[in-house]
UniProtKB/TrEMBL annotation, chains A, B:
Catalytically driven reaction(s): diphosphate + H2O = 2 phosphate + H(+)
SMART domains: DHHA2
Domain of life: Bacteria
Domain DHHA2: 179-304
GO cellular component: cytoplasm
Protein name in UniProt: inorganic diphosphatase
Length: 306, 306
């Protein structure tokens, strides 16, 4: 049976592109592997896959009796059902180390860079396997997406170098034009329900025993969301009511380089604890904050610790 | 403040050599680092360090306010005190993934090979840093030690290749002669107390909520231990009485390629569950079993799960 390669729930472009690329690399290393996803792909990913000639990975959510490679996550809450009934043989990631454990030794490639795609590019080089042209294209888009076209504080020189090299392989002459095209697809909000928007890029965390959800919408201009805010606020209140302590939704303006955060919480004081500034009503402007992973989740984790 | 590089409690040669080598590599990558240890080094490690001109790393056990690189472990029970009050910036290991988590992204190099030293050799190559001659010597010894001179089931082709390359750098002409010399030092039991022998290479595990200790003594001939067995049995009973469900001591004959396991347990049936064979009295012969990590700990973890 082929090894399955899987990213986190609510797949984004990095999770999808990484699953496809790692499955290719493992297969070429002599261990047959196939990419899967834990859910339907988002519009941005659909645009990227179509552009480079891939179809969406099959949706599979149960790990029982499977050999598994985790990409782009190491948190149980973001992973497959019954993970302990499968066997994790490898992990490729760029996040904090989560609570996944294994009974057996495994292979792990984890770097503190902006995107799993950057790690995977280095792995192809390490194993002496050529990156296929179309895989270079999707990895390139994954890095542009995760680093918000190099503007995120998570972006490193390694990410920029990987994009340079992948663009040459993929034959992409204007990387930034491709990035803008992709972000316009990602930003498209009209026609989407509030529920779809909240879960477009959403993660649940366990913070000192509290279930906390953080979603993020990145737009090229925040005013695009003006007519949606009321509906989004109502939606996160509903999500919070379903067993969570708090749900936060980051509305990130990638041009202004900051985020408005909508708040639904049992205890709003965690926001001031996390950011040193009290919210006005149910939202707060966070200047310079673009990264959930590096600028938002760690602050809340500390705030919940005390 | 320099980053500290630390291996597991009850340091063995892999943990000590890996801490020294990773500190060297990180420093040469421009991030000053120094090796430390969680306890006094064992006779085998003292022999290896002296042979290649190193002194034992300083003993430090508290992680508070330190930047830390973990080598050769990812289990909280095997790591420093107050680990959550320090910041883990990297992990280099070859074991199962344990319960250490981090609030921030980090660098991880974990491979399913016989020794952390093998991973570190690849890291030097990856970063284009030359392995110093004396560090090649201690990494080589670490691999010979962890793989029981290539006889352990944990040994892979990558370990053998690393030894070949490290031997050339270190100028070691007869690798197996060096290995035998090292194992004779390791096997020396006369003059050591039962307590010293039990803890020479000992680890505590959390198995489904039960604290379980597993120690291992490797000797070139099991009969060397005949006069010690009674004292060792009494000693593991004492260690078990200190809040543990079970303590097992593997007496591994590296020439016969098998282990006699001494047993102190609240429920001896876990041994039969783990190995499909009932012990005779308080010990059992396990043919072909030489690796705690791959042939013993996983079996007990499963046995304790039900």
């Amino acid at each position: 049976m082929a090894i399955v390669v899987v990213g986190h729930k609510n797949p984004d472009t990095d999770t999808i592109a990484s699953a496809i690329a790692v499955a290719d690399l493992w297969t070429k290393r002599g261990m047959e592997a196939k990419p899967i996803a834990q859910g339907e792909i988002a519009p941005e990913s659909a645009f990227v896959l179509e552009k480079f000639g891939f179809s969406a990975p099959e949706v599979v959510t149960d790990a029982t009796d499977k050999q598994i490679i985790l990409v782009d996550h190491t948190d149980l809450s973001q992973s497959m059902d019954n993970l302990e009934k499968g066997e994790i043989v490898a992990v490729v990631d760029h996040h904090k180390l989560g609570d996944v454990t294994t009974p057996n030794p495994l292979e792990m490639w984890v770097w503190p860079v902006g995107c799993t795609g950057t790690v995977i590019k280095a792995m192809y080089d390490f194993y002496g396997v050529e990156v296929p042209k179309n895989i270079a294209g999707i990895l390139l888009c994954a890095i542009l997406s995760d680093t918000v076209m190099f503007k995120s504080v998570t972006c490193t020189d390694a990410d920029k170098k990987a994009v340079d090299e992948l663009a040459k392989i993929a034959g992409v002459a204007d990387v930034m034009a491709l990035g803008m095209e992709m972000f316009k697809v990602k930003s498209a909000v009209d026609g989407a329900s509030a529920n779809e928007l909240v879960f477009r890029d959403y993660k649940d965390f366990d913070m000192s025993g509290n279930k906390v959800g953080i979603g993020q919408l990145e737009v090229v201009d925040l005013s695009m969301l003006d007519s949606h805010k009321e509906g989004l606020q109502a939606e996160i209140e509903k999500v919070k009511a379903d067993g969570r302590h708090s749900v936060f939704l980051l509305l990130t303006d990638i041009m202004k380089e900051g985020s408005e955060m909508l708040i639904a919480s049992d205890d709003v004081s965690v926001v001031e604890k996390a950011f040193g500034k009290a919210p006005e009503g149910k939202s707060i402007w966070l200047e310079g904050v673009m990264s959930r992973k590096k600028q938002v989740a760690p602050n809340f984790i500390k705030a919940f610790e005390g």
